[in-house]
UniProtKB/TrEMBL annotation:
Residue ranges of coiled coil: none
InterPro entries: HTH-type_LysR_regulators, LysR_subst-bd
Organism superkingdom: Bacteria
GO cellular component: cytosol
Organism placement in taxonomy: Bacteria, Bacillati, Bacillota, Bacilli, Bacillales
LysR substrate-binding domain mapped to chain residues: 40-125
SUPFAM superfamilies found in the cross-reference section: Periplasmic binding protein-like II
Protein name: LysR family transcriptional regulator
GO-annotated biological processes: regulation of DNA-templated transcription
Native organism: Bacillus cereus
UniProt xrefs under CDD domains: PBP2_LTTR_substrate (cd05466)
Amino acid sequence: RVGRGIKMTEAGKLLFDKGKFIMQQFDDVYNEIFELKGVKRGVITIGGLLEDLTYLTPYIMKFQQHYPNIVVKIIESEVAVNQIVDKNIDFGITRSAQIPDTLTNTLLYSEELVLVIPKNHPLNEKS
C-alpha cells in the first residue's frame, strides 16, 4: 500500500505477467485443437481437484464465448489421471507426478510456497 493507493509488489507483478501468459497458452491450445478437428458443437469434460479447477474458470468462460455450442462439463475428481485413462473425462488438471506413458502432460505453472512466521518465532532462528 502506498499512501491511499495500492502498489503491486514484485511478486504480484510476476504473478500477473505469468497469469497473462498462461491465459494465452490456454487460448492457443483451445483454438488449435478445435481448428484441427473442425469441432463446432459437443461436450468437453474436464476433471480435477476443485482448487485446481478454479484456475480454469476465466479460460472456460472465454472458450464458451468463442464456442457457444460446445458444453464444458466440470467433474471434481481426485483421480483425474485414471478418469482420462478410463475415458470418463477428456482432460484433467492434476498435481500428480505419476502420469502413465499412454498420456501426455504439460506443466501449466509452478508455484512457490513460503512459510510466513513472526520474526521472533523459534523457526526463524538462523542456523
